[in-house]
TrEMBL record, chain A:
GO molecular function: RNA binding
Xref: InterPro entries: Apc4-like_WD40_dom (IPR024977), UTP4 (IPR046351), WD40/YVTN_repeat-like_dom_sf (IPR015943), WD40_repeat_dom_sf (IPR036322), WD40_rpt (IPR001680)
Full protein name: UTP4 small subunit processome component
Domain Anaphase-promoting complex subunit 4-like WD40: 114-186
Taxon lineage: Eukaryota, Metazoa, Chordata, Craniata, Vertebrata
Gene Ontology biological process: hepaticobiliary system process; maturation of SSU-rRNA from tricistronic rRNA transcript (SSU-rRNA, 5.8S rRNA, LSU-rRNA)
A Pfam family hit: ANAPC4_WD40
GO cellular component terms listed in the entry, alphabetical order: 90S preribosome; small-subunit processome; t-UTP complex
UniProt cross-references to Gene3D superfamilies, sorted A to Z: YVTN repeat-like/Quinoprotein amine dehydrogenase (2.130.10.10)
From TrEMBL, chain B:
Chain intervals with Basic and acidic residues compositional bias: 768-779
Coiled-coil annotated spans: none
UniProt domain WD repeat-containing protein 75 second beta-propeller: residue ranges: 336-659
Protein name (Swiss-Prot/TrEMBL): WD repeat domain 75
Record flagged with keyword Ion transport: no
Subcellular location per the Swiss-Prot or TrEMBL entry: Nucleus, Nucleolus
Amino acid composition bias (Acidic residues), ranges on this chain: 753-767
Example of a GO MF term: RNA binding
WD repeat residue intervals: 53-90, 195-226, 240-281
Organism whose genome encodes this protein: Oryzias sinensis
Length: 689, 814
């Protein structure tokens, strides 16, 4: 496997943002997650929960609710605007002011013709969903107090609104309130504080389920307006509710971090008198569970502790399959770290600034496994603050370390960096070509002479870099026309070492390779069903390696325009089951120049070196056999060793890079560091403490 | 059990009342609990034992009310029988025995027709038994069908579901539900441990009475409520957690509104069904809760506790009564003793207490607080324990030794002497001697003074001394009474004394110093002689009584039992046996030796002067017997049978290693007991006189108000405006007043059918059955009083008469 000097980097203070809202689109299997910083992430549940798209946030955008309408995504927040997102350009398409103060909730009826929003001023506003826009239709009866939560009856004739101390039921036709359900306050000292109905759900059998700040989940009869059942599930708040598609199960998220499931069960067998019974309790969070989604097979929850947890319901899935495993999505599926491998610099991307660090140095030599003393501490060279409200969506540093580029949804900035014996000078390149205004991915060529950017028009912009100018060279528009109607954003770019090729992948799974000399499309790879998560071109052989969300790996020869023999044998023999069971995607591929047969890959929990010269592991053999190999004789070791050499020494990996001096940079972000930055959780009495 | 002549080992007195779940009668007035070989019926109001249902010949393993008749109860026993009792009158109605199953074990579950018995053959099987409905007292259960196999040996781990539609059984990590109608069973598995190290093993199970919900208790203190268990996959459960260690019992209240749970915390927790966040607690109940039962009317709960106690609790979660049995901890340090005044059995009870238990009345009399310090329930904490106690012959003095051992050298000892106060009728502390010896006290002995006051106590200790304590009046003050002080300190060649014994006339004291027995005269404290039979230290010493008082017996560790003649100071005889306990009957010459032989204990009863044992019983019980006592009888038996003669003056009680108090009973005694217990008073052969039929009918109506004429008062009580028109009702009303006279020939067939149906009614109601038997096949030869034989015609006529309305007779009778 080889020995490396490893820079173990733990000074990237990456802090994910809390999850505020979620919405699930069952027809496309896409989950939209809104974070506290205003970013919206789209996860594809059909493709191994891969984070396909990230719409960067804005510092003044506080999203309170999300809503899917036929593949269109709407959000509403405390800014008082309703925003529809352009999921191809990864930016808001337009925003509509609701003129009702901050908006707490947004909900569409099941016919998907109307959008209801609940406002601070006590109005429920109806917006008609048009082909291109939404248009204000009318207000329902204005109430005193804010509208916190909304839920449409599946027939669309009624709408329930959770408010302070009560629930209102409106007739959607007339706009008049038909029922007022008074919600009891908490007992004891909380009797004086008003109770907030954080969430309501209106079921087709005229049952309203509410979750409130007194810790109750209440079941109401909407016809008579009476309370049927009261479940006190926590001392704190019930923050969210979600109903399954068949309305047989409801989940409630609490401030304690628990998710409680209720099921409609027949109390006696063979009868139809279903009762809502509290059944399971899931505890996967340490903090508030703010957002919940009940898919057909799983409970998806997210909250203050920034993790997205997919907890399968074991009665709905097959046991001991990949589907039945609990998944926690901690880190973005896109690298936030960029490495200048010649200069030994690291660029860290934060939502509102960039940090450039120089790696530490050590002159000592040691045995394998030794910890070397650091002679020169790592040093933060520059902190680049982004101006404006928009957050940074991508960034890059050139391999020589003299260029830094980053982009927001509205603009691209390029800086020239000069590092000479301790003096750092930075200069903004002022005149950028106008094609470079909104990009999704940035990448420098290996000789730092070109900058590649995937633009919002599903195209790649190639710009050449001079000393202090950035002269516009070429814009490759024609490349992505092979797929009619596919204007999905390009999320991966990779240039070859020799400057001949540029590979680009989009979220539809298409991978295109461009000839950089001729500046035209060289070839298109066969489209694989799963989205690529990392691509790279081998420096010597010119093979394109791609890793996909379902953990498959392909190798494509650019010369022959076909899959290589190694890739075919990998497909023929199949990957090891343990490899396929990993639940985080491979986010980076690199090559070792000294050993051309070695491929470096990593995900959040391991890094792996694939030795293409060795035989592939068989399914019944042990995948993680590094320790075993150490103990057996060299002759036997030859027989036992296989291509996948996996190291799990480093955990919670954000990135691994191979520097030109054959040392390895490992950027870790221990979970304990993230947890320590979270606000303290609600106090709970623990037995025997 | 092995039969030995006509002497049998039985559980009698002081047996466990917490062995199985007790049953509460429907009206909550009676509590039935299995206690040894009898079922005891307690009154829930007064805590008194009303009577015991005698008849089983081995340990009773289950008591259950008969669902179809609230005045009857089933009991099952290790002797292989199931008996049906009328528990209010204490009458055995019927009993069933099966020949096909070797040992019927454990427990019964009843659901209307079928009786489910867990049979312990090779496998633990749950067997459905159909009891034939016939009049005979002993029936043989032939119809057996196995329902579930390999079930848990714990009766709490199986339960009937709603309306008897299914049965649930829990194995360590599996829940099995068997549906009777569909003949289908579902199994649900749990993982052995969850991530937090909790143990998921099932401990108990119960079913909701009206809904399909199973509650299961687990080792880690969780309660799971299972629902939807008629699906293999979509079953679901919710978890309740309050107990910190295993849940030992669970019960739903009869309406299903509450769930009761209990465990080692000795807190009864009441959960609201479907409002599980609301709970009520009843803490500080004493020992760990082992069973919970609920009366069918829901008015009372009762909890059994590990300290042999049943607590009766009102449904408002308030303790109303406590029934306390003989407290048996995991270890008894004191000997079994008999208090000479009350003849009560005395031994360790609650921590730091001595309990006084009346074996005759089978009732705890009182506890005497010896240590007089608060006991702290915390594991690993060393606290004062009562390790030794002794009464003098008249019962006016009690000596106790308590010790606390923190570390080996720091032994804390207290010798306390208690005088009996006639006014208080209790023992009052007279003298406390702290640190009476430097080492642990090995024996404590009062001399047997038949008249006058005892003034001496001898204690031997590991420090190599024995001390004589003397009661002496205080010299300097007048107002204090006499107290005890050390009179003599004896030692012998710095050997450790192990045991001591006074002769019957208290003129000699024998102290065993390892291999050497020294004989002293207490009058002058002179060493008279030494006796020795090496090798092996003397473990037990005992003087003979009455005519054998010249003999001194000693058991040594080298498996020898020696008998010395004190007149000649020579060894009379010696025999090789590993005596674990040597005991002398205070009322006769007999001595009992419990010998440990090949893992079990044998008993030999002998006279020291005679070489042949009077009685021997091999393999009495497994393990060593270290505690036994002769209890003087209140009435002497006059048995002439040689083997049982030794039981004439006293009972011999002994405590096995599993803390069962057992005793011996003779055949004659047993016969007397069963004769005294009431037999089936109303037998099947009561003559069917016309008067009986009339009166029976009348009683019938008194008991069953829903007779034929219910409609009439109903009609009259109804408000007029809701009634149908008078013309509509008139004919019906008049008809109901008429006495129907039909031709018997026409009605014959119809009558016969009616009679059939009547019979079935009778079968279902055993109370009726005992009174109105079948006249058709009446046994004529069985009864002594000759029943007047009736012809079929006459019977039919009587039947017809019975059908008529005799309510006018009520007026006459009143």
């Amino acid at each position: 496997m080889g020995e490396f000097v490893v820079h173990r980097v733990r000074f990237f203070d990456y802090m994910p943002s809390a999850i505020r809202a979620m919405a699930f689109n069952g027809s496309t299997q896409r989950l939209a997650v809104a974070r506290g910083d205003g970013a919206v992430e789209i996860f594809n549940f059909a493709d191994n929960y891969f984070q396909e798209k990230v719409i960067p946030g804005r510092s003044d955008r506080a999203i309170e609710a999300l809503c899917w309408v036929r593949g269109r995504l709407f959000s509403a927040g405390l800014s008082g605007e309703i925003i529809e997102y352009d999921l191809e350009k990864l930016r808001p398409r337009y925003s509509v002011e609701a003129y009702g103060g901050p908006i707490w909730t947004i909900s569409s009826n099941s016919q998907e013709t109307l959008l209801g929003v609940g406002c601070e001023d006590g109005t429920v506003k109806m917006f008609e969903i048009l082909e291109e826009r939404i248009q204000f239709q009318r207000n329902l009866d204005r109430q005193k107090g804010r509208i916190i939560s909304l839920s449409w009856h599946p027939s669309g004739a009624q709408i329930a609104a959770g408010m302070i101390d009560m629930i209102r039921i409106f007739d959607a036709e007339t706009g008049h309130a038909t029922h007022r359900l008074l919600v009891e306050r908490g007992v004891g000292t909380t009797r004086n504080t008003e109770v907030v109905v954080w969430s309501v759900a209106f079921l087709s059998n005229d049952t309203v389920i509410s979750g409130d700040s007194a810790g109750k989940v209440q079941i109401w009869d909407a016809v008579t307006g009476t309370l049927i059942r009261n479940h006190l599930i926590t001392k704190w708040d019930v923050l969210g509710l979600a109903v399954s598609q068949d309305e047989s199960s409801v989940i409630a998220g609490t401030s304690e971090g628990t998710v409680v499931q209720f099921q409609a069960l027949a109390s006696t067998m063979g009868q139809e008198n279903n009762q809502w019974v509290r059944t399971r309790t899931f505890k996967n969070h340490t903090h508030d569970v703010r957002a919940l989604v009940h898919t057909d097979t799983a409970v998806v929850s997210g909250g203050m502790d920034t993790q997205l947890v997919v907890r399968p319901l074991l009665d709905k899935v097959e046991k001991n399959t990949q589907e039945s495993a609990l998944r926690k999505i901690l880190f973005p599926h896109k690298s936030l770290v960029c490495c200048a491998r010649k200069a030994g610099l690291l660029l860290f991307q934060f939502p509102d600034h960039l940090e450039l660090w120089r790696l530490g140095e050590s002159s000592a030599k040691g045995q394998a496994g030794d910890r070397l003393p650091v002679m020169k501490n790592p040093e933060k060279l520059i902190q680049l603050q982004n101006k404006g409200e928009d957050h940074i969506c991508c960034s890059a540093v050139s391999p020589c370390g003299s260029w830094v580029a980053f982009s927001t949804v509205s603009s691209v900035r390029l800086y020239k960096l000069q590092l000479s014996n301790g003096n750092i000078s930075i200069k903004k390149v002022s005149k950028l070509p106008k094609e470079l205004h909104s990009v999704h991915q940035l990448c420098f060529s290996s000789d730092s002479s070109r900058l590649f950017a995937s633009s919002a028009q599903a195209s790649v912009v190639v710009a050449s870099l001079d000393q202090l100018q950035c002269k516009h060279l070429h814009t490759a528009f024609s490349a992505f026309l092979s797929f009619p109607g596919s204007s999905q954003p390009i999320h991966l770019l990779s240039a070859s070492e020799n400057g001949n090729w540029l590979a680009a992948a989009n979220t539809d799974g298409q991978i295109h390779v461009f000839n950089l000399h001729k500046l035209k499309l060289h070839c298109t790879l066969p489209v694989y069903s799963s989205c690529p998560t990392a691509i790279a071109i081998h420096p010597t052989t010119g093979h394109l390696l791609s890793a996909h969300a379902d953990q498959q790996i392909f190798e494509f020869s650019l010369k022959l325009k076909e899959y290589t023999a190694w890739s075919r044998s990998l497909q023929r023999e199949g990957l090891h089951p343990l490899w396929l069971q990993r639940d985080t995607p491979i986010t980076h591929i690199a090559f070792n120049r000294n050993k051309p047969a070695h491929v470096f890959l990593h995900d959040a929990f391991m890094f792996c070196i694939i030795d293409q010269s060795l035989p592939l592991p068989q399914a019944r053999k042990k995948l993680y056999n590094q320790m075993d190999l150490k103990t057996i004789s060299p002759q036997k070791r030859m027989q036992e060793s296989h291509a996948f050499k996996i190291c799990k020494m480093f955990q919670h990996l954000l990135s691994i890079h191979l520097l030109d001096d054959s040392s390895l940079v490992v950027v870790e972000r221990p979970l304990a560091d993230i947890v320590s930055q979270l606000p303290p959780p609600v106090r709970q009495k623990k037995f025997a403490t | 059990m092995v039969e030995h002549g006509d002497v049998r080992v039985v559980h009698k007195g002081g047996s466990k009342i917490n062995f199985r779940e007790p049953a509460l009668s429907t009206d909550s007035r009676f509590l039935l609990c299995a206690s040894g070989e009898s079922v005891k019926v307690f009154s829930t109001a007064t805590e008194e034992c009303l009577h015991a249902l005698q008849g089983h010949t081995d340990l009773i393993t289950g008591v259950l009310l008969r669902p179809s008749n609230h005045l009857q109860a089933y009991s099952c026993s290790l002797d292989g029988t199931v008996r049906l009792w009328d528990f209010t009158d204490g009458i055995l109605i019927r009993w069933a025995k099966s020949n096909r199953v070797n040992i019927w074990c454990c427990f019964i579950y009843v659901w209307t027709v079928h009786l489910h018995v867990c049979a312990c053959t090779e496998l633990f099987q749950l067997v459905a038994v159909h009891l034939p409905q016939c009049g005979e007292q002993l029936v043989e259960a032939k119809e057996l069908s196995a329902v579930l196999s390999n079930i848990s040996s714990n009766p709490a781990a199986s339960a009937f579901g709603r309306e008897g539609q299914y049965i649930v059984s829990a194995k360590p990590l599996q829940l099995e539900v068997y549906f009777f109608k569909k003949h289908k069973s579902y199994s649900f598995f749990l993982k052995k441990d969850n991530q937090k190290g909790g143990k998921n093993t099932f401990t108990c199970i119960t079913c909701h009475p009206t809904e399909d919900c199973i509650a299961s208790g687990h080792e880690d203190g969780k309660i799971r409520l299972w629902r939807n268990f008629n699906h293999r996959k979509e079953y679901t459960y919710s978890t309740l957690h309050w107990h910190h260690s295993a849940v030992s019992s669970l019960r739903f209240t009869p309406e299903g509104t509450n769930l009761l749970s209990g465990g080692v915390e000795s807190v009864l927790v009441q959960w609201r069904y479907n409002q599980e966040s609301q709970r009520d607690f009843l803490p500080r109940l004493g020992g760990a809760i082992t069973h919970i039962s609920v009366s069918p009317d829901g008015a009372l709960f009762c909890t059994s506790h590990s300290d042999n106690k049943i607590t009766i609790i009102q449904s408002c979660v308030k303790v109303s009564a406590v029934i306390q049995g003989l407290v048996k901890g995991d270890r008894i340090r004191t000997d079994l003793m008999i208090e000479p005044r009350s003849k009560a059995l005395v031994l360790n009870g609650k921590p730091g207490h001595l309990q006084f238990y009346s074996l005759q009345r089978d009732k705890l009399l009182y506890n005497l607080d010896i240590v007089q310090q608060e006991y702290i329930h915390e594991s690993g904490l060393e606290q004062f324990e009562v390790v030794m106690a002794a009464f003098d012959a008249s019962g006016s003095w009690l000596a106790t030794v308590e010790e606390r051992k923190q570390k080996a050298p720091e032994l804390e000892l207290n010798l306390k002497l208690w005088a009996f106060d006639d006014q208080k009728q209790s023992f009052v502390l007279n003298t406390t001697i702290s640190a009476p010896h430097e080492g642990r006290i090995t024996a404590l002995c009062f001399p047997h003074v038949s008249d006058g006051q005892t003034t001496m106590l001898v204690s031997t200790s590991r420090d190599g001394h024995f001390k004589a304590w003397q009661l002496a009046a205080p010299a300097h003050t007048e107002d204090e009474g006499p107290s005890w002080s050390c009179d003599f300190l004896g030692a012998y060649h710095s050997l450790v004394p192990e045991c001591c014994c006074f002769s019957a006339d208290s003129s000699l004291l024998a102290v065993g110093f390892q291999e050497v027995v020294t004989v002293w005269t207490p009058a002058s404290w002179e060493l008279l002689t030494t006796l020795s039979q090496p090798p092996g230290a003397v473990r037990d010493l005992c003087f003979g009584r009455l005519s054998c008082s010249k003999y001194l017996l000693g058991a040594t560790t080298s498996r020898l039992l020696c008998c010395w003649n004190l007149l000649t100071c020579s060894l009379e005889w010696v025999t090789s046996m590993d005596v674990s306990l040597l005991l002398a009957d205070p009322l006769s010459e007999n001595m009992a030796a419990f010998c440990f032989e090949a893992g079990s204990t044998d008993l030999f009863v002998f006279k020291p002067g005679e070489p042949r044992p009077l009685f021997s019983h091999k393999a009495l019980c497994s393990g060593r017997v270290t505690h036994a006592v002769f209890v003087p009888r209140e009435v002497m038996l006059e048995s002439c049978d040689e083997a049982s003669q030794w039981l004439n003056c006293s009972h011999l009680y002994f405590l096995t290693q599993s803390m069962d108090l057992l005793t011996f009973i003779t055949k004659a005694e047993e016969d007397k007991l069963t004769a005294s217990s009431k037999q089936l008073v109303v037998s099947d052969d009561v003559a069917m006189t016309p008067f009986h039929l009339l009166l029976g009918k009348h009683r019938d109506q008194l008991e069953n108000p829903q007779g034929s004429n219910v409609s009439l008062p109903q009609l009259l009580q109804m408000p007029a405006h809701v009634l149908p028109s008078a013309s509509f009702l008139c004919s019906m009303f008049v008809q109901s007043l008429l006495i129907s006279v039909n031709k018997p020939s026409e009605q014959n067939k119809e009558k016969e059918e009616e009679m059939e149906s009547e019979k079935e009614e009778e079968d279902s109601d055993g109370e009726m059955e005992s009174r109105i038997s079948r006249p058709e096949h009446m046994p004529s030869g069985e009864s002594g009083c000759a029943a007047p034989a009736l012809t079929k015609e006459e019977v039919r006529e009587l039947r017809r008469l019975k059908k008529l309305d005799h309510s006018w007779m009520k007026g006459l009778l009143d």
